[in-house]
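Exercise: predict the fold of this chain.
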Amino acid sequence: MTHTGEQKIQWAAQYMPVLNAIRERFEKEKPLAGQRIGMALHVEAKTACLVRTLAAGGAEVYITGCNPLSTQDDVAEALREGGIACYAKRGCNTEEYYAAIDKVLDARPTLTIDDGMDLINRVHIDRRDVLPEIIGACEETTTGIHRLRAMQADGKLEFPVIAVNDTPMKHYFDNVHGTGESVLASIMLTTNVLLAGRHVVVAGYGYCGRGVATKARALGARVIVTEIDSRRALQAHFDGFDVMSMIEAAKVGDLFVTTTGNCGIITGRHFPLMKSGAILSNAGHFNNEIDGIWLAEHAAAVEHRDGIDTYIIDGKKIHLLAEGRLVNLATPKGMGHPIEVMDLSFAVQALSVEYVAKFGRTLSAGVHDVPTEMDEYIARLKLAAVGATLDELSAEQKEYMSSWNHGT
């Protein structure tokens, strides 16, 4: 019988035409021959397709998780059975989490791929022994880019990193549609509550927050946005959402989703103001957006269900999903972003790794953008896969757009 993890990988692969096209080329050209790639990503079926694409390109691949609750153990086992060194496991503690990262680094990777920057951070702080062999890296998510730019500003980043997260292909599709759909799907599967008519509070109105807010409204929710940036708050207002501070939103919200990538978004200031039955979830990155420690210390009692911890505070029930970790991956039935979205994001990732392998030695230490032509190439592959066609500029139109002397 086919391994359940292998079944998941095969299911995902059939809906990833762009990554499959890249894999076919990699198998022929072997652009990653001789490279050792160390990865810290969410180990699930779509990620496995990326891993196999990189291995098809000739690389030795070593992977672990980037979140203690996001690994799908059967997928990890399928990777191991296929010859990939995979150290991820679901439910690991902090010590085990970093021990697995160290196992990846023990392979002395020449290239790294991160989701949240834990691998790069470990290299620079505790595993400097591997620094000389690293050509460069790729970073998948917003939180990681924030940390990397802060590291660069302090003059501490010692090799080039491609900001995969910052491309239009990532922002417009992965962050908006991927986060928006997968977060709400996971919440509904975990809680079985109706979103229509509920007050849904979305903390942060970046690409991820906008995706969650827009999808929640489409399901009939009454959406409230909290923000610290006046321009994004105004954008949320003109997009038709109520905008208020978290102190105000805490009093009326039924369901809360944090999408900021920052810490201390929902804290002890807010919990006592909430309705009994309020549901809290995080779609940012680390589990410090919602202060679960405060809840544990102040609760009169705690009830545990699959993916839900219920804290009794002053006689009220406050429900925290997935221990405050990524709700679309860390709940028992969390599947992460839809396959078609990750087809695009992991295509960017695969080509970015190839780019670093070729040109990393010529790049300065610091954060670098994905080349625009690479992003556009992936978009064209996807359009071809879905049967869409594009118009092209005529010679007259190109001349018109490049000229400054055409008037009325």
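Check your answer against the key: The longest strand covers residues 308-313.
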